[in-house]
Amino acid sequence: MRRLGVLLSGRGSNFEAIARAIGEGRLEAAIAVVISNKAEAAGLETARLMGFSAVAIPSKGVERARHDALVADELERHGVDLVCLAGYMRLLTPALIKRYPERILNIHPSLLPAFPGLDAQKQAWEHGVRVAGCTVHLVNEALDAGPIVMQAAVPVLETDTIESLSHRILAEEHRIYSQAIARVLRGGWRVDGRRIVWE
Ligand code: GAR
Known about the structure:
The structure is a single chain. By secondary structure, the chain is of the alpha/beta class. The protein is about 35% helix and about 25% strand. The strands form 2 sheets. The protein has a 7-stranded mixed beta sheet, with helices on both faces. It has a two-stranded antiparallel sheet with strand order 8-9. It is globular and about 50 Å long. It starts with a strand and ends with a strand. The relative contact order is 0.15. Glycinamide ribonucleotide binds near residues 11 and 144.
């Protein structure tokens, strides 16, 4: 059984969707540990209540590389094979990326490379896009920029508000993240420049 390490900073609904996919047999994996850089993250409490190992490694006031090294140590302690960022609002440094090469995924609420960074749904809404969406990608040192694993498009409706649009994007995030994790775990792929080639 492949072991996932989930990193989150807030609500944790993507973490819950991953746990649900595993529980329902749609994703063959186990959540080995949930780590947050914020001790007060709601998702960390949810993880604890669900019986997972839930660890806070506060980032405030800690040098970035030092914090990432502590996170990598904790992931290794739990025998993690694949790291899943799920609303983890930090840019990773080589201190973590080099210890999990091509083994860190992120979910982002836009069709990358459009609208990287914070409040992607709001950026897309204010830009007036007709099609929004979400992206699962491998993580590298640049912000929301690694090779793309999977995307889902979400049409913007005339009746939408930013809230209703964000809500539908989130539903697609919950749907594709576990699919993308399953696909990556299945193997048979390689990275060729920016592209992931499925063999
Ligand atoms: C999600 O919409 C996720 O895509 C986004 O944060 C939210 C976390 O929600 N991540 C990013 O913007 C990363 N750049 P959740 O805590 O309920 O999963």
